[in-house]
Amino acid sequence: MIAIADFGMGNLRSVAQALARVAPGVDASITQDPAVIDAAERVVLPGQGAMPDCMRNLAASGLEPSLRRAAASKPILAVCIGEQMLFGASEEGGVSGLGLFPGRVVRFRTTMDEQGRRRKIPHMGWNRVRQARPHALWAGIEDDSYFYFVHSYHVETDAPGLIAGRADYGGSFTCAVAQDNIFAVQFHPEKSAAAGLRLYENFVTWNP
Q: Which residues does the annotation mark as catalytic?
């Protein structure tokens, strides 16, 4: 069973629908119950909105201890702000994340595009993702495939071995990280057509 952690700030139904499409025989349950997360074989941590709201809602939900236990023992896929929540400090609201990974969350700096115009923030739309290293969740996904992004902040880390994917928006930025049983992405696989569905399919069978 796959638990989709519901702390009130995620793109939950789209994630559940994507998992149902790639693994129709798998029970993928949206849950607010820590016991369900403890019992699940694997966990998806989606996030959407502002980092301060996500961390506040997570604390109020009572799910944080079960998510920390899951992070120590079972496959986890974190999506969008779910990825940012795994890190320490965030510039968005000056809040702290879960601190599971070394690094911080920073806002995109203002840059100019090739036509001399300011790049819009948030970074929104399709962008290519370069796979920084091989990983089971990249299986069957061509390097430089397009994924769908909506975000104004991104993670920075001084641990190069953590980086699994990068994209460009006024400069290169980390958009996927992986360590042991955790894989996390800034983009939305559930909105990313065939490449995103393949990533979810890979997660369903991933045995780190």
A: 80, 188, 190
